[in-house]
Design a protein that fits this description.
Layout: E1 8-18, E2 21-31, E3 36-40, H1 47-55, E4 62-68, E5 71-74, H2 88-96, H3 119-135, H4 151-163, E6 169-173, H5 181-196, E7 200-204, H6 208-213, E8 216-221, E9 224-229
Helix pairs in contact: 2-3, 2-4, 3-4
The structure holds adenosine-5'-triphosphate.
GO molecular function: ATP binding; ATP hydrolysis activity
Organism: Leucobacter luti
Keywords: ATP-binding, Nucleotide-binding, Transport
Length: 230
């Protein structure tokens, strides 16, 4: 059986403008599989914008992004879905089926086709969703409507959505926002575990402990890359 290519995420000469104003200038960075990278810098320095460009959610004005592998983006303070009549479990399930061209990882056919959602595939998805909710400590709240959860609980459910299909590339925007000490430690452990299984993990953060725990820190200032440390 052919071996899977290792995940790749590299940006070369990226520039990006919001509403005509340049916010990223000639950013070149290469992320490594098996590493947890902290993306740090002052407010407005372009961290979230760079994360979204890396995820393919925003097209760069100049430059290229090379991305090989299944990528999941956990956005900052996801508010819109909170008004939808969905449960915590529904949100996590969406992570398993985020791409229209492929089913959940591990449930794909040998040619990469999406299999029919048979009983075993549904059971696999349910198992993966339960495992992800359990890892973030939200399995016992799975049936609760998203709108009734606290901000921190909601944040954990969206982290579950991001990890449910064991993505090759996991991109997170301040995932510890609103989390208590215990949940923050748990989230850091999850990110380290995801990197340890070989994923590329990039986490936008202002938190000194998260930066210290990362394998590598990339800093932005005024939309420019300052340094790739360690
Ligand atoms: N949708 C938008 N429309 C216009 N300008 C935007 C938009 N989103 C971000 N910006 C601007 O782009 C710049 C970079 O914003 P970005 O959110 O990427 O910074 P950040 O480093 O993630 O900030 P923070 O630490 O506050 O989250 C800021 O000057 C911001 O005002």
């Amino acid at each position: 059986m052919a071996s899977m290519p290792s995940p790749t995420l590299a940006a070369t000469g990226i520039s990006f403008a919001h509403s005509g104003a340049d916010v990223l200038h000639d950013v070149t960075v290469r992320l490594r599989p098996g590493e947890l990278t902290a993306l740090a810098g002052p407010n407005g320095s372009g961290k979230s914008t760079l994360l979204e460009v890396l995820a393919g959610a925003l097209p760069p004005r100049r430059g290229t992004v090379r991305r090989v592998g299944d990528a999941a983006l956990v956005v900052q303070r996801p508010s819109a879905p909170a008004t939808l009549p969905v449960t915590a479990r529904d949100v996590a399930v969406m992570g398993a089926w985020r791409r229209s061209s492929a089913g959940p990882r591990g449930a794909r056919g040998s040619a990469g086709r999406r299999p029919r959602a048979g009983r075993s595939s549904r059971a696999a998805t349910r198992g993966a969703v339960d495992a992800a909710l359990d890892r973030v400590g939200m399995l016992d709240q799975a049936a609760r409507p998203l709108a009734e959860l606290s901000g921190g609980q909601r944040q954990r459910v969206f982290l579950a959505q991001g990890i449910v299909r064991s993505p090759d590339i996991l991109l997170l925007d301040e995932p510890a926002a609103g989390l208590d000490e215990h949940s923050t430690a748990r989230m850091h452990a999850i990110l380290a575990e995801e990197a340890a299984r070989g994923a590329i993990v990039v986490c936008v953060t202002h938190d000194g402990a998260a930066i210290a725990a990362a394998d590598r820190t990339i800093r932005l200032a005024g939309g420019r890359l300052l340094a790739a440390e360690r």
